[in-house]
Amino acid sequence: MSVSRLITLSALVLAALSGCGTTAMTGKQSTGIAPASPDVPVSLTQPEFRQPRELSSRDGRLHVRLVVEQRVVQLAGQNVRALTYNGDYMPPTLRLFPGDRLDLDLVNRLGEHTNLHTHGWHVSPQDSSDNIYLHIMPGQTYHYTYRLPKDLAPGTYWYHSHAHPISEPQVFAGLSGAIVIEGLNRYLPPVLHRTAELLIALKDFQVHKGAIPTANIDSNAPTNRTVNGLLNPIIHIRPGETQMWRLANIGANIAYHVQLPGVRFHVIAQDANPVARVWGTDTLLMPPGSRWDVLVQGPPAGRTRLVTLPYSTGKDGDSYPEATLATLVSGGRAVTPARLPTTFAARYFDDLRKDPIAQRRVITFSENTRTNQFFINGKLFDPLPVRLV
Q: Is the pTM value of this prediction over 0.90?
């Protein structure tokens, strides 16, 4: 029913534009699987981890066709009506290089308008590029053209509906996917240039009467947290092996507090911003829209749960219990752990710590929990004028 004051600005705006509630988990779950709904039992079969299909640019171009429609998909072992791109709850990952051009045809087969936003890209908002105010009406096909800057930072991004004012229910029902901008591996030591990359895209879903709801979304209802659309998949790694994990919260509402007990996350990029110095952490906080590119090294042989820890977004926010996201199985021939880098992509940062401060601003986010309206410095968001607070 409410949105955390700690979530990112982009997630707050997404919820505000939607005019709908947010989604949360309640109740402890020893299996890490929340019931989908009383009429949709959850399959307890543990699947193997798999990544979404990838569409990669060639010779500086990528042409993609995405069909938006409601389809019946298999989630938690059950048939569920969801909103899909090309019939998939977990749609294709788009892989491009800085300087590439993306031509994308969006075909709307819904009964309402939609559009597409490339979250985090530094591209034009005008005309047929990243214009979040477009209304692509039912039955229409729209051709997007994105020209990526040559200095676009490498890392993990995502795409999703940004249709005002229904972006939240459309994303919640499935309209989101991942984008990878190539180039992070060139900052790694040569021994790690070919390290395995795993996309770990986090989405959650509820089911009501056989479908993911797109109205009256209840933030305190039990929800199912998935990795690439899978419930608690098995991820394989060898003891000592180094892998690059691209963790992305591409859901509409809920936060994750991710932990892999006994294993450190070595951060090389946050929200597609490469770090100047690699740093290690035991947990990653992931509000909606956040992404972390990290290096992990295989623990001794055995099984380790990738979990999201209990987390509260505050007095008027949501409280999420612990849940299992995936199971890491370390096995096979052990390898000597590679020496991880300490410095990384320093060229992406200007050191502003000693620069004079020209002005200080205080920005306060608030909400009316009765009307589910969100405010910046006491003012309701107005999409038309552009003004400084």
A: no
Give the lowest-confidence range in 4-13, 102-111, 136-145, 367-376. Answer: 4-13
Whole-Å CA distances, 49 to 165, 199, 228, 326, 361: 34, 10, 8, 8, 45
The C-alpha atoms of residue 220 and residue 285 are separated, in whole angstroms, by 20
Distance CA 194, CA 12 (A): 37
* Cα–Cα distance, 211 to 206 (Å, whole number): 8
HSE-up (13 A, CA, CB side) for residue 199? 27
State both tokens at 185: 């591996």
Average pLDDT over residues 5-15: 38
Cβ atoms 23, 2 nearer than 8 A: no
pLDDT at 318: 87
- The Cα–Cα gap between 292 and 268 comes to 8
The size of the chain, in residues, is: 389
SS3 179: strand
Range 279-283 contact pairs with CB under 8 angstroms and sequence separation of 24 or more: 283/257, 283/258, 283/259, 283/309
Q: Give percent of the chain above pLDDT 90.
A: 75
Question: Where do we find the tokens 């938006």?
Answer: 68
Under CATH, which architecture does the 9-23+50-184 domain have? Sandwich (2.60)
CA distance 131 to 144: 9
> What spatial distance separates the first Cα and last Cα of the chain, rounded to whole Å?
26
Residue among 246, 237, 199 nearest 327 (CA): 237
- 82 alpha-carbon distance from chain centroid: 17
Nearest to 159 by CA among 181, 188, 142: 181
Say yes or no to pLDDT of 347 above 90. no
Residue 375 parent element (H or E): strand 373-376
CB neighbourhood size of 307 (10 A): 21
Would you list the domain boundaries of the chain? 9-23+50-184
**Averaged over 158-179, what is the pLDDT?**
97
Spatial contact of 308 and 295, defined as CB atoms under 8 Å apart: no
Q: For 352-365, what is each residue's pLDDT tens digit?
A: 888 999 999 999 98
